[in-house]
Design brief:
With 395 residues, this protein is of the alpha/beta class. It has helices spanning 3-13, 46-49, 58-70, 81-93, 105-123, 143-148, 152-155, 173-179, 203-216, 267-270, 286-301, 304-325, 347-356, 379-394, and strands spanning 25-29, 32-35, 40-43, 98-102, 130-134, 165-168, 184-189, 192-193, 199-200, 219-223, 247-250, 261-265, 328-334, 337-342, 359-360, 362-364, 368-371. Bound molecules: pyridoxal-5'-phosphate.
């Protein structure tokens, strides 16, 4: 079977929810992927922010192998060592006191919303359920997370939406304050909007939101599914803002390539969940937890958060230079979460040209290019990627 045969079978047997690019990957190592014909690619998207420590890191491979041989699954009615160890580790590196494990970002966010509602209804009043999110936000593809996502065009085909979410423009504190009602229980934001086009919360804005939540007794929820685990040059993006949320969701880079999501909360909030309130058959399973524990160890041992910060600065410098002679309208993001807004509608074409030259980047709509490289990229990788990107801008 060759590439064409697999494409034919894919089109016959797999639902067409993705506009696929014409490559079939069979192998990954570090920042490199190989296609079915043996061509290599420098990965500057990490499978959408997942392969943060690089593809098939030997420490993860070993941890998964060992766990698979020992214990693959037991129900959450029992204790397991990998789950306890990962929980302790995540609490150690974050603001939180308690965590819960899910299987994906959307599923973690579902749990986050349930926790915010249960806490507010229990301690603040039965009618407090509404959550304010931002326009252009992205929180996942389940029905409730689609309702939380501030992109009406994504909701339209699936209406009616579940109730309980209201959307406001990002970075306008006055409008946010006006949107609050007696029913509001929380404000939920991505510190940097990812899928919406790499739009960061302003420093004063997020600090203002934190203060406002304190004054009004509202919960601040940060969706760090994309920004978390070193992506932005800090372990968590909230650290850039000198604030802490009450609840946070994680996924993507958490598992070193293995699916896992997490909810992290302060004790006072977490205590709202009682046995029977929330659960997941697979969430917090031994293999995913062992992988995530190993991934966090790699991030520490290889100082990948520092590398994310340094390589992020290097890329920004080089893009600033490029923007002097190419039609780049805006550069946004932090660390290794980078958005490049182009003057013209050529983002897709540039992604395609780069792919031909062996560089994987991503477009958001017609004008925005996104880089989300593994946190372990080197200066040599950056130079190579920028050269290919420059070449694509040139012709
Ligand atoms: C900020 C944010 N939240 C939630 C999600 C949904 O995560 P998942 O695709 O793992 O459900 C994403 C995915 O891109 C995301 O970027």
């Amino acid at each position: 079977m060759d590439f064409e045969d697999y494409v034919k079978k894919d089109s016959q047997f797999y639902m067409h929810t993705y506009a696929r690019l014409p490559v079939l990957f069979v192998k990954g190592k570090g920042c490199t992927l190989w296609d079915i014909d043996g061509k290599s690619y420098l990965d500057f998207v990490s499978g959408l922010g997942v392969a943060s420590i690089g593809h098939c890191h030997p420490v993860i491979v070993e941890a998964v192998k060992k766990q698979v041989e020992e214990l693959m699954h037991v129900s959450n009615l029992f204790y397991t060592i990998p789950q306890v160890e990962l929980a302790e580790k995540l609490i150690d590196v974050s603001f939180g006191d308690k965590c819960f494990f899910a299987n994906s970002g959307a599923e973690a966010n579902e749990g986050v919303v349930k926790l915010a509602r249960k806490y507010s209804k229990t301690f603040l009043g039965e009618d407090k359920y509404e959550i304010i999110t931002a326009l252009r936000s992205f929180h996942g593809r389940t029905m409730k997370m689609l309702a939380a996502t501030g992109q009406p065009e994504k909701q339209k085909p699936f209406e009616p939406m579940p109730i309980g979410f209201k959307h406001v423009p990002l970075n306008d504190l006055d409008v946010l304050k006006e949107a609050i009602t007696d029913k509001t229980c929380a404000i939920m934001l991505e510190p940097i909007q990812g899928e919406g086009g790499v739009y960061p919360c302003g420093l004063e804005y997020l600090q203002g939101v934190r203060n406002f939540c304190n004054e009004e007794g509202l919960l601040l929820i940060l969706d760090e599914v994309q920004t978390g685990i070193g992506r932005t040059g800090k372990m968590f993006a909230y650290e850039h803002y000198g604030i802490e949320p009450d609840i946070m969701s994680l996924a993507k880079g958490l598992g070193g390539g293995v699916p896992i999501g997490a909810i992290i909360a302060r004790d006072e909030v977490a205590k709202a969940f009682e046995p029977g309130d929330h659960g997941s058959t697979f969430g917090g399973g031994p293999v995913a937890c062992a992988a995530a524990f190993a991934a966090l160890k790699v991030i520490e041992d290889e100082e990948l958060v520092k590398n994310s910060y340094q390589m992020g600065n290097l890329i920004e410098e080089k893009l600033q230079e490029l923007s002097k002679s190419f039609p780049i309208k805006d550069l946004r993001g932090k660390g290794l979460m980078i958005g490049i807004e182009l003057e013209g509608e050529m983002a897709k074409e540039i992604v395609s040209k780069c792919l031909n030259e062996g560089l994987i980047i991503n477009n958001i709509g017609k004008k925005i290019i996104r880089f989300l490289p593994p946190l372990c990229i080197t200066e040599e990788d950056v130079n190579k990627a920028i050269n290919i990107f420059k070449g694509a801008l040139l012709n």
